[in-house]
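User: Can you help me understand a structure? I only have the sequence.
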Amino acid sequence: MLWQTHKKMSKIHSTAVISKKAHLDTDVEVGPFSVIGDSIKIGKGTKILNNVTITGLTEIGRDNKIFSYAVIGSPPQDLKYKGENSLLSIGNNNTIREFVTINPGTQNHSTRIGNDNLIMAYSHIAHDCQVGNKCIFSNNATLAGHVTVEDEVVIGGLSAVHQFTRIGRLAIIGGCSKVVQDVPPYSTCDGHPAKVYGINFVGLKRASIPLETTHQLKNALKILFHSGLSLPHALDQIEKEFANPSVELSHLIDFIKSSERGVSR
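Assistant: Let's start by predicting it. Here is the structure, written out as tokens:
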């Protein structure tokens, strides 16, 4: 392979097309036939494989790996978008696999992706989405616009998330699910449309959540989804039953209370 240097000894293949206005930090690698546009910043140690397109106003952090045919920063698929120069920000140590597409924000908004995420092949993250840290998007997981995904979420393959929906921390969504309302933190969710089935025991264990907290969350989810109570009455019951809620339970309660689209039940 033929490599040349570009800005601070980055490794660039001779067939890559890189704007002179782009900023590539140290040790960035760019493979054959990749294209990097003007307003691009890429942090040190990031590896971009062959045939990747990075465009728009895009900032990418350190030690990411972007695989073949990913398209990062292309214009939003939104009729409201009128060509404004909106931001796409990607953090550190993310793995973005083949044919992934990620769009920037619209109308003074931005799309932001945190750190340590695995975004598998053919996944799509639309305009104005906010994705946390340590999430896994299985193949063909798709987010519509303005979706919020909190930390350590797993989205199964071929699943679609409706615009303005929120996915709570440590939730897991089964494959081929249709998510049209908010998915509570720490829950398992599946179906068409998706419904909550229980608690994400495996995810909580991997995240080193104390067993006492896990039992507290399990009982709270049981009240929310299996007691027959309306959502406001279920929340009242939880607050009465758990006088000293854990941080995780408080987060669950606040998430439910702040829902605008309603909660998958």
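Now, to help you interpret it: Confidence is low (pLDDT under 50) at residues 1-5. Residues 211-226 form the longest helix (16 residues). Let me know which part you'd like to focus on.
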